Amino acid sequence: MKLLVLGIFVVCLSLFYIWSHTRIVQLGYEINELTSAQIDLLNDHKNYQIELVLMKAPQRLQTVATEKLGMAPPQAQNLIAIDGVVTAPVETE
Amino acid sequence: MVTETENNKTPRFRIFIVSLFFCFFYTVIIFRAYMLQIHGNEKLSNLATSQHNANLRVSPQRGTIFDRKGEILAIDVPVASVGIHPHQIQDKDQVIKLLAEHTSLNLKQLAEKLASTKKFEWIERRIPIDNGRAIESPKLPGIQISQEYRRFYPNKELAGQLLGAVGYDAKALGGLELTYDQFLRSATTNKSVERDARGKFFSEPDQNLDTHHLYLTIDKNIQTFAETALKKTATKHQAKSGFALVLDVKTGEVLAMANYPGFNPNAYWKYPLDHWKNHAVIDVFEPGSTFKTILMAAALQNRTTKPTDRFFCENGQYQVGKNTINDHSPYGWLDAKTILQVSSNIGVTKIAQKLGRKKFYEFIKEIGFGKEVDVGVSGESAGAVRPYKSWRDIDFSNIAFGQGISVNGLQMTRAYGAIANGGHLFKPFLVKEIVDNSGHSVHKTEPINEKEVLDPTIAGELKQMLHLVTQTGGTSTQAHVPGYLSGGKTGTAQKFDTRLKAYAENQYISSFIGFTPLEDPRLAIFIAYDTPRKNGYYGGLVAGPVFKALAEETLKYMGEVSREQANTTTKIAQNKTDAKTNLAIVTPEQKWTSAQKDLSQNKVPNLKGLSLRQVLTLTQGTPVQLTVKGSGIVVKQMPESGDLTNTKEFVLTLGERT
């Protein structure tokens, strides 16, 4: 009886050992896939960042503003500093 | 007939035989196990490890370089590199077809590569990552795809010389990339990963990188203004090269460092070495008349001359030893401030003679000439200041008007910055902060006020004198910045030909250096061109307008209120007070703080005057819904006041600022 219990225990232990190893390998594959996905997402993020920088490039914005939208830099008389910290007027020469 | 005893003996015998067999069998197994596990353990263990583990080369990466506002200036982009193991390839035609489709090599070139007797051959490095994936997907034996990183400069030529370039394997080739290589570049490592019998990995190398990211003091927009203005004028005057420097005089931060001709680090191999040069720091040159300011500063600081002191300018010709000094126009008696305004060589010679060569030399050294600024750009030149004891009379005069001495652009800008800020000599710097891959700051540069080189009153007098240069009668009225007051000095220095050991004919360094706004300077700007060949060469004519354009754009961009704006604003404020509207001008910061305070007290905040973005940020986390009409800033809101807990919705009307 004791031998039988011992035998069953050894078999269970062996099965647990095999199961845990199989699980480790499976999880390894899953982690590998997730890591690859993470790297892909990070790469995509980088690419989007670059696309954003390219879209925001000052030269591109200037071209779009001046050539497509007909905009021009504001002249001094077009600007009114209403919200800024107002400095005292300077004596004109 | 078999007896009973014999019958009992036969199974026992059989059991004995079977037991013996098992004993023998297990003994063999145990012996074999012993041989495998203990006796030959090391060799077999190594063999198993080599089959089970693979060594992967992790490509080095570089941290990102940002400008002062977090805009990307240089970043790593993932790319693929394709290689082959020619001996492992089974279907050559299919491999060639696949590679020809996704790389830039043609069929003939690929056939040659496949015929190689080498164990490994690169096909093409740094191709787009999607092409690499397309080559990898059919899983043909003998093809190896590795992920690498290529340095990408999204703004192309912007700050090209300053940033430098990066070659294969993340190797820095110049500029800040090289200076800060130890922070930016991660180490090339080989990492062990586990794989199964089919060679499939079931663990990835960890992605923890030891790279750092740089935050520069450069402002991408100011850099753009500088490069655009510099290039436009360089083209007009067909200059050989040029640079523009913008320095924050209150901190020493370099806001822009532009060079002409441009250099695109994305395609560095296409440019001759001369285009890589950061002229603002590497080139040394004779500063010419821009150095007269340094003499004047020395004379005022040593109290040997006052701005109103008068000197006789010899009607345009003055004998110093065997040499004659000439002025571009004949002048008689001029006071010191007019001497600087009209840039009289004879006038400054006389001021220098009154000062004395020892004091002049000491001041030149004190204000930072003759030694490197150490801004963090490799190859910086210190310039040359000869000891005053070796100066002949003519050398002394020449140095007074900026010949016989060599400086770099940053030294000059720093010195003018000190005049502009009241006498504090700040150490210029380019890198504001270095952060690690987790975003923790590992180094922060704080402004360093190296020393006081001028009394504030002397600096104030000098600023007023330099202001006259941009006014009528000065040498650079073209440098006058509309709406702002500024000061500065022109320079037109003949170039010294080291080969001929004489000043070259028709070759000049044309420059303008100044600061703005005069009342409370924020910027020191230096513009210099090497050998303008067309449409004039005088510093005031060539570099003055660039100063004007760059200063005007930068001041507007920085929100610096111009004199016209200040007047208009004051008038508006005055009108409102007169009308007894009791409307005070409230800054956006005040509106924001007030709204935040109301929210924290569970009151309906006053959102008028705020942008939609500000409103969204403020109301984030509250259960209140927003209904928005129009565009612009909030001009009307419902409800206007009350208890926030009873409010479920804000109806906002956006419109133009009134």
How far is the N terminus from the C terminus of chain B?
Answer: 130 Å
Strand % of chain A is under 5%
The average pLDDT score of chain A comes to 80
- Structural class by sheet pairing and helices of chain B: alpha+beta
Domain module tally of chain A: 1
Topology, number of strands of chain A: 0
The CATH homologous superfamily of the largest domain in chain B is termed DD-peptidase/beta-lactamase superfamily
CATH fold call of the largest domain in chain B: Beta-lactamase
Give me the secondary-structure category of chain A. mainly alpha
Mean pLDDT of chain B: 86
Order of helices and strands of chain A: HH
Biggest β-sheet of chain B, characterized?
Answer: 7 strands, mixed
Number of domains of chain B: 4
Question: If you compute it from the alpha carbons, what radius of gyration of chain B comes out, rounded to the nearest whole angstrom?
Answer: 37 Å
Shape of chain B: elongated
**Biggest interface pair, residues each?**
A-B, 38 and 49 residues
